[in-house]
Amino acid sequence: MNEYVRNANFNQISPRSWWSNIGDGFTYDDNEFLTNQYIHPFNGSQYFNAARSNGLTFWPSYAVALGGALQWELAGETHPMSFNDLVSTGIGGAALGETLFRLSSMVLDNEATGPRRVFRETSAFFLDPIRGLNRVLSGRAWAVRSNPEDAADTNPAGQRNELNIDWRRLSENSPSGADASNLGFVEYYHEHGDLFANERHGPFDFFTLDAQLNFGDKRLIGGR
What we know:
This protein has about 220 residues and is an alpha+beta fold. Helix content is about 45%, strand content about 15%. It folds into 2 domains: about 15-145, no CATH class; about 160-215, no CATH class. It has 6 helices and 5 strands; from the N terminus they run αβααβαααβββ. The strands form 2 sheets. The protein has a 3-stranded antiparallel beta sheet with strand order 3-4-5, with no helix packed on it. A two-stranded parallel sheet has the order 1-2. The longest helix has 25 residues, at about 85-105.
């Protein structure tokens, strides 16, 4: 992808670049906010869920995310290793990865068949691509079998979901200014389970998610 599609300048890796990275040690990466705080965590989430979707629990998958981040910093690019990228990819990837894993678990239904099954598997694939790929490669995407017995693994009790479609009026000067514009957005708010009623207290047995997509704004992903 980096070599033939993006024509990037950091992908000419070799054992020489690996030893150079080891010799230089860790530095600070000053990439843009979107790169460091979204792209890196998303990549880390795929490391995490490569393990999680193949049966590993949270903490071993966390180790895989950290290992994947370290492997990339050392051997995946010629840029010096970055400690903030290691945090964003490894730790941020585990946080985002488990969130995506839980959300995709709410969508999946192993007992469904026909168009309903296709819709659920496709939706889960877009939420968690590496899990969707693993389900296709293993045949789980179409195998009819029982769902997890514990509802906390699929649809936890006490959850809350809100979908808001609205618009904002933005201007450099005032809302009534000539440069004012109306920009739409879609917001999804989710409370995963009930903090006080949950019988389980493992990682991400309860969490909140507030995600917003902006239309016509400089940033697709943002907040009000």
